[in-house]
Amino acid sequence: MAERDSTATARDWRAAVLADVIRRPAVAGAPNRLGWPGYDGRPALWWGTGPVEGVDAVVAVWDFAVNGGSFGEADAGAFADAAAAAVAGRLPLVSLVRSGGTRLQEGVAGLVGLARVSLALAEVAAAGLPHVAVSDQPTTGGMWVTVGSRADLRCAVLGATVGFAGPRVVAAVTGEAPPAGASHTAAAAHAAGLVDAAVAPAAVASWLRRALDAVAVPARVLPAARTPDPPARTDADGDRAGIADNSRADASRADASQAGSGPAPARGGWEQVLAARTGQRRHAGDILDGLFPAGVDLTGPDRTVRARVGRLAGTPVTDGEPGAGGEPGAGGLGPRAVGVALAVERGGAPGPAGYRLLVRAAGLASRLGLPLVTLVDTPGAECGPAAEAGGIAAEIGAAMAEVLGCASPTLSVIVGEGGSGGALAACCTDVVLMSPDSYVTALSPEGTATTLRISVEQAADTAGLRPSDLVSLGFADGVLAPRDTGPPGLAHRVTEVLTELTMRDSDVRLRQRRAKWSTGLGGFL
C-alpha cells in the first residue's frame, strides 16, 4: 500500500488554490474483494470544477488522510469521471497528487485502475486539452507512473518524496536505501529533467497560474502594426506561397538597407561561419526567454535544449483576456505558442535527451493547437560514444518526424549555427527565417574538410551556407533585418509570421509544408 508519512509539504497551499472549486459528489466505495478485516474502500480522490488561479478547470485531488492517498477501484472511477468532465467542458485537467500509489488491500483489482487512468488521459489528449500535474508529498508508485511523470506540464513541491518506488520499498527490495536527498525527491526529479519545475509550497499557485495561462484556449491576436502582406496564394501544386515570397522580399530589402546602416557586409563562407560563432549576438536561450517572458518551461535531462510554452511578447490580445497589466488588450502579450531553443548556448551539441524534449514540445504544440517556434543555434548533434549508445540517430529522426508532422503552424529561426541533421530536425517548418549572422551546412566546415581533404576555409566558402545562398537555393524563406534579431523586433516578426500562418486554411498549409520538404530544392547559386 501507500507509504504513510506524517509530514506534508505546506498542507495549506491547496486550500487557497481550491477555494472556488465546486466539489462533485463522491463515488461509491470499492468492494472488499480480498476480505481485509475492517477495510475502508472509500476513495481518496475527489474532483470538482471551477476556477484555479483564474482559469476554469477540472481538478482531481488526492487526500492523503484517506488510506495514504492510495489509488484503487473507486479512485479510478472518480478520475475517469473527472477526465470525462474535462473533455465534455473543453477544460484543462489539473491533478494535485498526494499518494503512495496503488491501494494494496485491493490487490490486482486496484492495480488495473492505472490502466483506466492511462485511457482516461488518452481521451483528454485526443480532445486537444492540457493536463497539468503537481506532485506533492508523497507522489510514488502508480500515481507517479501514470499522472505525475506524464502530464503535459509537471511541477513537484520541494520537500516531497517523488519517485517510482518509495524509499522504504527500495530498501526492502534492494537491501539498501536510496541516498538521502540525492534520489526520490522533488529536487532530484527536477535535476533529472523528470518534472518541469520544483518549487516551494508557497510558489505552487504562481506556477499554476502561469502554466494554465500558457495552455489555455489561444487568444485572437491583433494584426501586426505593419503594412500587411498580400494574402497567401494557394497554388494548385502546393508549392511555396504567401510568406515565402513576402519573406524573400523582406530579405531583399534587408540586404539593400540594413535598417539605415548601409548594405549588408559581403562575407565569404568562412567569414560567415566565424560571424555565427563569435559575433555579437544573444544566446538562443536568452532569446527564448525574451519571446516568452511569462511562460513556463518544459524540462528534460539534457540542458543544452530548452522548451517553453506561453504567450509571445509584444502583441496585444483582443478577446477580452487580461493582459499583463490586467486590462483587456493592454498587456502587450501576444498569442500562445511553444518555443524550443536548440541549443541554449552557443556551441551546444544536443544529445538524445535534447531531441526527446523537442519531440515532446512539438507534440504538445500539435495536440493543443499552439504554434511551434524553434530557435536553432547548434554546430550539430552530440556525436560521441555515449550519444551513439543512447540512440542519437533515432532520436534526431524522431524529432524531425514530429516537427514535420506538427499540425500547428511552425516557424524556425536560425539565430546562429545550423550544423547538419542535428539542426535540420528543428528546421523542417512551414517557414524558415535566418539572422544575418547565421549559416546552415550539411556538415561542419571541419567535418567537411576532413571528409573531402580540403581546407576548412575552402569547405566553408564552397558550401553555399550563407543566408543569401540559402534563400537562393530555396531552403530559407527570408533573412531577418538587424532590427528584427532582438527584442522587440523579433517578437513582432515571429507574431507577424505566425498570425499569417494561422489565418491560412490548415489543409493548404500542411500540403504546402509537405511539398516544401518532400521535393528537392529548386534554386541555384
From TrEMBL:
- EC annotation? 2.1.3.15
Per its UniProt record, the required cofactor names are: Zn(2+)
- Kindly tell me the pathway this chain contributes to: Lipid metabolism; malonyl-CoA biosynthesis; malonyl-CoA from acetyl-CoA: step 1/1
Q: Where is the composition biased (Basic and acidic residues)?
A: 232-253
The record's catalysed reaction(s) read: N(6)-carboxybiotinyl-L-lysyl-[protein] + acetyl-CoA = N(6)-biotinyl-L-lysyl-[protein] + malonyl-CoA
Its subcellular locations are:
Cytoplasm
- Domain annotation CoA carboxyltransferase C-terminal: ranges: 248-500
- Name of the top EC class for this enzyme: transferase
Q: Which domain of life is it from?
A: Bacteria
**Keywords of this protein's UniProt record, alphabetized?**
ATP-binding, Cytoplasm, Fatty acid biosynthesis, Fatty acid metabolism, Lipid biosynthesis, Lipid metabolism, Metal-binding, Nucleotide-binding, Transferase, Zinc, Zinc-finger
| Biological processes annotated in GO | fatty acid biosynthetic process; malonyl-CoA biosynthetic process
Q: Composition bias, kind Gly residues: at what positions?
A: 322-332
Q: Briefly, what is this protein's role?
A: Component of the acetyl coenzyme A carboxylase (ACC) complex. Biotin carboxylase (BC) catalyzes the carboxylation of biotin on its carrier protein (BCCP) and then the CO(2) group is transferred by the transcarboxylase to acetyl-CoA to form malonyl-CoA.
Family membership noted in the UniProt record: In the N-terminal section; belongs to the AccD/PCCB family. In the C-terminal section; belongs to the AccA family.
Name of the protein described by the UniProt record: Acetyl-coenzyme A carboxylase carboxyl transferase subunits beta/alpha
